[in-house]
Amino acid sequence: MAxxxxxxxxxxxxxxxxxxxxxxxxxxxxRLDRADAVEWLQTLSDASVSLAITDPAYESLEKHRAxxxxxxxxxxxxxxxxxxxxFPNARFPALLTELYRVLARDSHLxxxxxxxxxxxxxxxxxxxxxxxxxxxxxxxxxxxxxYHYRSRHELILFFEKGKRKLADLSVADVIRxxxxxxxxxxxxxVAVSEVLVRQSSSPGELVIDPFAGSGxxxxxxxxxxxxxxxxxxxxxxxxxxxxxxxxxxxxxDDSRYDAVRR
Length: 262
What we know:
The chain is of the alpha/beta class. The protein has helices at residues 37-41, 61-66, 92-102, 115-128, 190-200, 216-223, 235-248, 257-260; strands at residues 29-34, 49-54, 103-113, 131-139, 153-161, 174-176, 206-209, 227-232, 251-252. The protein has an 8-stranded mixed β-sheet with strand order 1-8-7-2-3-5-4-6, with helices on both faces. Helix 3 (92-102) packs across helix 4, helix 5 packs across helix 6 (216-223) and helix 6 runs parallel beside helix 7 (235-248). The radius of gyration is 17 Å and the shape is globular.
């Protein structure tokens, strides 16, 4: 992560609010910016986004770091980048306000978090108009660090704006996939994001992640024919995500960026 500002290195194809998806022309498109999540969302138009999936570096991670139960905020031999700046709980109202504004009328929001952050985010999101359905479980299939009932799962809060039916009502609320080891800090498996993208969007629609990290959500969107728009404060993360999206077959399309700006 780093301070705000925009990188002109990548982009996406916008689907206008209320309009049918544009016909697919070649690969899915993307844009990535180096920016603060809230400031970046403030530049996007109302109801311009079909789906948001994101994973803020929540405040409770500081407690885990203090007792040595996470390396998420440290450097390690697996990566040379500076680990994330914490996103404080006090900023969640601003983040959720902007997410609600930019999401289309009938759309979903998925937010990765831990148990402590869930109790902070849920009432804030509901007060803004989101409907909370449940916390999905990402079962990492391998036990993690800790002292009291060591964790092997992470929560994914499932919110709805308006009313949108899931693509497949037979999908369980537990998503099983091994954690990523030796990659970008706290990297999420693309396969987990693919479940969410497939369930809550259609080909040609726009998926965003304001805490894009190494781009797992974007890769999932690309593989499923959705366009992607993301931001991160870390220049190294933006570069890594752009490379991954290119390798996944997404195309950069800077000409579309102005269409989604306020």
